[in-house]
Amino acid sequence: MNNIKTSIIPQTQRFALNGNSQDIDHKAICIFAATGFFLGEDTYFTNKIALQPATDYIVDENGYVAGSEQYWKWNYDPSETSFKQVTEEFAELFEKVCKEKLSDKDVILPLSGGLDSRTQSVALPDNFRVKSYSYKFQNSFDETKYGREISKVRSYPYSEFIIPEGYLWKCIDKLSGINKCYADFTSPRQMAVIDEVSDLGDVFFLGHWGDVLFDDMGVEDILEKDEIVKIVIKKIIKKSGFELADSMWECWGLGGKFKDHLEERISALLDGIKIENANSKIRAFKSMYWAPRWTSANIDIFSSYKPVVLPYYDDEICKFVCRVPEKYLSGRQIQINYIKLKNPEIAKIAWQDYAPMNLYNYRKFDSKMRLPFRAVNKGKRLLKEKLLKNKLIQRNWEIQFLGEENSKHLKKHLFQNKKFSEFLSTDLVESFYDKFLNEDVKYSHSVNMLLVLSMFCKNDQFKNQPL
To answer: Taking the CA atoms of the chain, what radius of gyration do you get in angstroms?
Structure first.
């Protein structure tokens, strides 16, 4: 017997067997197609389950679950404290986590224009060995300038990388082997430069999930259950995702309606989260069911090359968030205040979501002061597009799906895979591909998921592979 204890937010997906029937779980795959990740224990197969967060498992020598017990549950137990005290407690805990896990390591720190990696850069002591990097799409906006400026303030060696057009087709077999087709292939653009960035140090220091833990969910604190179910579905369903899943449901003749099945699954999972506050409840749902099944699947790309440290995944950070009043979590206040107190120079660097505003004046983002900046930026974009004779790349899928060469590879995977055509109606695939050609933004997710399913069919060894 093996004892397996999963973390509150597991860094990697782990699986076990639970039953003898190796049937395809079509209903689970429909939800996967709609959202981009599997829910709860769901996998491609009825006899294989994903091990759930914060749970002790007993797994026998054949890989079957012999017993399990959840040892911790998400909760909302806010303490009566001041915002100053909360910030101080965050600073002490976050810096402790970083120091304990990164001491004596050559740290690889990806930097962006957001708050999570900026918070990490502020938390690291001056004597730590750190190399940082950023990347941007080929023929796109300069996303690397924020990391460049942060690195300059912290005196980090800094590298910039270009994500080239069509890189996916050179590494799609390797990528599907890493994420086991449990996530899409266009989101983890780090795959294009993973060989180069992994040579920068000993350990990746990644900022995933900070934006979920340290922000509100944008809803009222008190909501009826039906309202929360609707909000969660709205948050997790991708553009055209419901349409694709509904079509697959009908194609496979699953009976009933996909909409009813989805609502029942979300409702049941929410029932298991004993939290009244709607913001806290939704955050817990996302941390239990989204982070481990989508975010972690993409983290596997980093961890397949070098060890990974994820400070926001840390058990103590999760427990800390449960003690913080929602009024202090809303609007990223804790991270903003921490950065301003710890390193004012980094706080003065523009926040990408509110550029050109920084952490001191971002609240003026929608004011008339920003109108001239918007006009100048639009002029620069139009000029650049004119010089390039093409639109600037803004989304992950554009650099992998658009253009003649990309289309050739995409169509090969969608229409020249015999196992995929046996798995899903070619008419259905053609229908969504045609819709993508006419409305690429809306139907990019659908094509993305069809590509994943095609690769799953190609790699049928996953069916019996111990994961």
So the answer is: 23
Backbone CA torsion sign across 383, 389, 391, 392: negative
CA distance 371 to 450: 41
- Within this chain, do residues 166 and 114 fall inside the same structural domain, yes or no? yes
Q: What is the DSSP letter of 331?
A: G
Distance in angstroms (rounded) separating the CA atoms of residues 121 and 88: 17
Residues 304, 206, single domain; the answer is yes
Query: Tell me, what's the pLDDT at 374?
Result: 53
What residues contact 291, with CB distance under 8 A and at least 6 apart?
9, 208, 209, 212, 313
Domain-embedded: residue 125: yes
**Do residue 211 and residue 299 come from a single domain?**
yes
Give the β-pairing of 129-137 and 106-110.
Answer: parallel
pLDDT per residue over 100-120, tens digit each?
A: 999 999 999 999 999 999 999
Could you tell me the residue range of the domain that residue 110 belongs to?
83-215+288-371
Clarify whether residues 354 and 384 are in a common domain: no
- CA nearest to 106, candidates 62, 156, 160: 156
- Residue 326 makes CB contacts below 8 A (sequence gap 6+) with 76, 78, 216, 221, 277, 279, 280
Whether 426 and 352 map to the same domain: the answer is no
**Torsion angle in degrees (nearest 10) through CA of 273, 278, 282, 287:** -60
Calculate the dihedral angle through the C-alpha atoms of 92, 93, 98, 101, rounding to the nearest 10 degrees: 130
Q: Indicate the residue among 337, 355, 371 that finishes a domain.
A: 371
Alpha-carbon span 189 to 450, nearest angstrom: 18
How far apart CA 439 and CA 426 sit, in angstroms, is 20
* Residue 379 predicted with pLDDT over 50: no
Asked whether residue 304 falls in the same domain as residue 199, the answer is yes
110 closest CA partner among 171, 151, 153, 165: 151
The rounded distance, in Å, linking the Cα atoms of 279 and 315 is: 20
Total structural domains within the chain: 3
Residue 464 predicted with pLDDT over 90:
no
Burial label for 368, CB within 10 Å (0-12, 13-18, 19+), is exposed
Going by C-alpha positions, the residue among 13, 19, 78 that lies closest to residue 45 is: 19
CA distance 179 to 210: 22
Q: What are the tokens at 356?
A: 């050109």
The SS3 assignment for 80 reads coil
pLDDT of residue 369: 56
CB 39 within 8 A of CB 262: no
CA-CA distance, 179 to 296, in Å (whole number)?
9
Does residue 140 share a domain with residue 92? yes
pTM: 0.93
Whether 40 and 155 share a structural domain: no
CA 327 to chain centre: 25
Q: Which of 323, 349, 371 is the last residue of a domain?
A: 371
